[in-house]
Amino acid sequence: MEYKNLNKVIHSHPKDNVATAKSAISPGTLLILPKSKKIIAKEGIPFAHKISLQRIPRGAPVVKYGERIGRAIREIKPGEWVHIHNVTGERGRSKGRKKG
């Protein structure tokens, strides 16, 4: 197991349930977060992509910068890569806007 610390990720806001990789993170990397929280990367996380800091249930919001940026389309476990395969974006969408 590769041991690293908080310097591998950016955790922007206390409400965030994701952090952003400052460089590529290998599977098995142990990340030490504030308040001694520890997360092990379950898979490779590319540079500038998000990693889950906690369990995010299907349908629950994905929060970055303290704001909801999307919704989980399946359960996301701590340490998993958070991207278009498990999140649908919600930014820029208006409830009143017609499709098509």
Describe the structure concisely for a colleague:
The chain is mainly β. Helices cover about 0% and strands about 30% of the residues. About 25% of the residues are buried.
Mean pLDDT level:
87
What is the N-to-C order of secondary-structure elements (H for helix, E for strand)? EEEEEEEEE
What is the strand arrangement across the widest sheet?
1-2-5-8
Strand content: 25-35%
Q: How many distinct domains?
A: 1
Q: Helical element count?
A: 0
CATH architecture: Roll
In terms of quaternary structure, the protein is single chain
Number of strands: 9
Please write the CATH class name: Mainly Beta
Structural overview:
- By secondary structure, the protein is mainly beta.
- Helices cover 0% and strands 30% of the residues.
- It has a single domain (6-89), classed as Archaeosine Trna-guanine Transglycosylase, Chain: A, domain 4 (Roll).
- The N and C termini lie far apart (49 Å).
